[in-house]
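User: Hey, quick favor. My workstation is busy. Could you predict this chain's structure for me?
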Amino acid sequence: MRLTWDQVLAWRMRRQYVDPRAGRDAVEVARRLCGVQAQVTSAAETAVALRRSAGEPGAVVAALNEGRLVKTWAMRGTLHALTPDLAPSVLSLMASARTWEKPAWTRVSGATPEDVAALVDAVREILDGAVLTRDELVTALLKKPRFHPMEEHLRSGWGSMLKPLAWQGALCHGPAQGTSITFANPAQLIPGWSGIPDPDTAAPAVISAYLGAYGPATPEIFNAWMFRGFLSKKTVRRWFSDLGEQLTEVEVEGRTGFVLTAHADELAATEPARSVRLLGPFDQYVLGPGTNDTILLPGDHRAKVSRTAGWISPLVLIDGRIAGTWETTGADLVVSMFDDARAPLKELKGEAAHVARALGQPGFTIRAA
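Assistant: No problem, here it is.
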């Protein structure tokens, strides 16, 4: 099957509720996107709100507080809001990399694989029926002298020492207490928590969810999205191969990749989109395929989107391609188009109203940089 990138981008926008927007709740949006990056909570709220045809910000936090979403370290070691049915499979794949067993991990953290195993057991015991702040959790851990050398890493806001515990299902984020984050055992916080499955059992669910939003894609692209490419290529290719007839290989203007067979006819029938959309920072639309995808984001403009310190800029989409960035300054929404292109101010005016709703602001005036 041969496709065009215009078809693919139009299909992705529809699948991701970018164009058209949908009357869905935060849980359904997160499910369709295979998780929403929540390293910055406000960015997760914006990503969800801009995909809904109505609704104020706050839907993600509400779903987290109600146990309808779970916040934990997932893809690429970053915080995501995931649906409880998909989260165990995502965590299983993250755990399969066994990063805490590698010598480089021990050199940086000072923790051996045996130390991490001891932390898993200790945290499960401490969080049995409890929801604790980071300080409360670390203070409880430090009652055991074995964990004293790890205090700095345990208290780090980056969560480097806690990520392997999350991937093994020992903890996840709980409801915030003011400005303090909390941790809980997902089995006690999330209704119907199923536990962490075997990676080979988990892989089909995660790959299918990914391809359902970001396909066509190769095992290498999935590996980059999931693990920054660190997992064994052989393993990821086997996971794809094991899906057999559930996947169909397609060609898109010289590139090959896989889609779910159930979506192949729909994708082939998709007409190119003609739309202008604004998406917020850290949006899954670019994080899913990756900022290195030059079809989506011209390589000479990548640095304007993938910024220093890991910041991902808000996006201007023209017909599904990233054509600029934007920012808000007071009551102005300032658009910076690539290659000095003309900003489609008429179309952007309507988008500015959606951004204002998503940010809980009264309104913005569109201005070209």
